[in-house]
């Protein structure tokens, strides 16, 4: 049954009889005996307590986002807040970095799937960021199995039997440190109702994981600290302040020292780049730095300037870290973090090894090496990789340039970045727009949404590992080009993007997708549904804030109670 935003029937309310739930909590997701330990009465009460204390703060923060959007749409530009100048100019530092995570040279990311978790923890990376957010399709099954998998991983007992390969996967003696990324503030969890309202997705992800694992994690992985988190999609320091209060309440509720929980914030929205000091200040007892979430940052640039036809982006493949606004963002992030005594993490290498083409594979690896060399020389303390095959190359470059030091916090102050201005951070990227750019956006967007609808949030496409951020760039760029009827100036043919042209491109790309994936997979996959969602969002008169918020309604499934359980 598709719940969407349409309330719930009495049939759904019966699902509570399967899970032992506290007052005011309803679980509408499928009953599974395996999930009952995760969804214990005490764990659900813990999540409900967080929800009740912070829901009004979260609603206010989301209202403030809408208000900021209204200002940008009326012509305002994001910038540094004069009211918080004293925080930016003050001489304060964050709490010392826990020894367990002082060395973060290479971090691998991926969804909370069982085999992925084992391979990532065994990969040789220093950190594994297990993802409930952009690399996961948030179906009930994926979320609950993810919690089960993480509990087994923290306990050190996780195994996986791949029947197809007849291979058993288990953890090595030496594993990466585990960070967990919950969903952003804006995403609901429609399978769990608290006082009649859908729970906040990130409080479910954080609350269940923290409640079940804080004690074991601090003993076995954190050296007395932890658990460790990544926090996504923030737009303002008031959102960091909520997280800090959530952490303090969680620590108090289970009786661990204040400052045990640590988190790295992704700077992946344009408004947040002007709030980096303020974000660190709010989280100063719980911070382990900031990270350049560069794909989402590009998406946010387009979204922030959706009503500014003078700020159109070129093809997304041309918007790299050498563009002035991207380079400025990276340098200011490094300077800010190091001045405050915490890690400045670099961006994602999304390439996947190309097994059947050694020449293309070497060319892709060379691109990764160049990108990572630029990062380490700029002063980043570590970087992200999407695939275990990239880790040796990334590690070699960071180790060679950093020697035996675990990080560059004390040695690369980047005081030269203090002179960066609002103009530097907002400079329009240079480049051209092409028909191939429009086509690539369309076929990547449709294929990603199709995968997401069938339960995959991390999707290999054209030798890159794509997550929701890439689909978001594709969508908002198509939307902006359509809205302003832009000329595809890179082709020299004077063609302008309009409804008719876009409709033809969609049809042709659907044929291409069918040819590439094969008729059988195309028929079984949700490509037609995905095409509808993606093209509707690209053609909509107003731009939706998030693709995943709309598409979420298609994956919410509420199960009636099983007869045998009655």
Automatic annotation (TrEMBL):
EC number from the UniProt entry: 2.3.3.9
Entry's localization field: Glyoxysome
GO molecular function, one term: malate synthase activity
Residues at the active site: 181, 467
UniProt keyword annotations, A-Z: Glyoxylate bypass, Glyoxysome, Peroxisome, Transferase, Tricarboxylic acid cycle
One record GO biological process: tricarboxylic acid cycle
Domain Malate synthase N-terminal: 23-85
Main subcellular location: other
Catalytic activity: glyoxylate + acetyl-CoA + H2O = (S)-malate + CoA + H(+)
Residues of the Malate synthase TIM barrel domain: 177-428
Region (Disordered): 1-21
Domain Malate synthase C-terminal: residue ranges: 433-554
Family according to the record: Belongs to the malate synthase family.
UniProt protein name: Malate synthase
């Amino acid at each position: 049954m598709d719940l969407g935003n349409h309330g719930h029937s009495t049939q759904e309310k019966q699902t509570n009889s399967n899970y032992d739930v506290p007052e005011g909590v309803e679980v509408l997701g499928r009953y599974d005996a395996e999930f009952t330990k995760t969804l214990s009465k005490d764990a659900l009460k813990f999540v409900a307590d967080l929800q009740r204390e912070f829901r009004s703060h979260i609603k206010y923060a989301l209202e403030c986002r809408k208000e900021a959007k209204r200002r940008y749409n009326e012509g305002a530009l994001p910038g540094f807040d004069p009211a918080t100048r004293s925080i930016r100019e003050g001489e304060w530092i964050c709490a010392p970095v826990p020894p367990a995570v002082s060395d973060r040279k290479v971090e691998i990311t991926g969804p909370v799937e069982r085999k992925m978790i084992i391979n990532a923890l065994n990969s040789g990376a220093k950190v594994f960021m297990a993802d409930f957010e952009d690399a996961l399709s948030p179906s009930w099954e994926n979320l609950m199995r993810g919690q089960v998998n993480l509990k087994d991983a923290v306990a050190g007992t996780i195994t996986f039997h791949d029947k197809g390969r007849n291979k058993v996967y288990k953890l090595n003696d030496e594993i990466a440190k585990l960070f967990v990324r919950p969903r952003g503030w804006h995403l609901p969890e429609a399978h769990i109702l608290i006082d009649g309202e859908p729970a906040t997705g990130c409080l479910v992800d954080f609350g269940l994981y923290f409640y079940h694992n804080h004690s074991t994690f601090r003993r076995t992985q954190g050296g007395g600290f932890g658990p460790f988190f990544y926090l996504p999609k923030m737009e303002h320091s008031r959102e960091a302040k909520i997280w800090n209060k959530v952490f303090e309440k969680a620590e108090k509720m289970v009786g661990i020292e204040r400052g045990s929980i640590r988190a790295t914030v992704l700077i992946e929205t344009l408004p947040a780049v002007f709030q980096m000091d303020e974000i660190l200040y709010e989280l100063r007892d719980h911070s382990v730095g900031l990270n350049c979430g560069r794909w989402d940052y590009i998406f946010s640039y387009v979204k922030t300037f959706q009503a500014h036809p003078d700020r159109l982006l070129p093809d997304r493949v041309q918007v790299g870290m050498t563009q002035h606004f991207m380079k400025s963002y990276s340098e200011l992030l490094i300077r800010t973090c190091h001045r405050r005594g915490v890690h400045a993490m670099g961006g994602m290498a999304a390439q996947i090894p190309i097994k059947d083409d050694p020449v293309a594979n070497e060319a892709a690896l060379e691109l990764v090496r160049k990108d990572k060399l630029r990062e380490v020389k700029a002063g980043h303390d570590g970087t992200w990789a999407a695939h275990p095959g990239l880790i040796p190359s990334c590690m070699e470059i960071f180790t060679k340039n950093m020697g035996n030091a675990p990080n560059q916090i004390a040695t690369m102050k980047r005081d030269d970045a203090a002179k960066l201005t609002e103009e530097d951070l907002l400079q329009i990227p240079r480049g051209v727009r092409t028909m191939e750019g429009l086509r690539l956006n369309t076929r990547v967007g449709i294929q990603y949404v199709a995968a997401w609808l069938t339960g995959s949030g991390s999707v290999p496409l054209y030798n890159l590992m794509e997550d929701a951020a890439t689909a978001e760039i594709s969508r908002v760029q198509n939307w902006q080009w359509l809205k302003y009827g832009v000329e595809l100036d890179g082709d020299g043919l004077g063609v302008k993007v309009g409804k008719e042209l876009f409709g033809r491109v969609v049809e042709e790309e659907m044929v291409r997708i069918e040819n590439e994936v094969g008729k059988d997979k195309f028929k079984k996959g949700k490509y037609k549904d995905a095409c509808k969602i993606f093209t509707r969002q690209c053609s909509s008169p107003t731009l939706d804030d998030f693709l995943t918020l709309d598409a979420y309604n298609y994956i919410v499934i509420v199960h009636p109670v099983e007869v045998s359980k009655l």
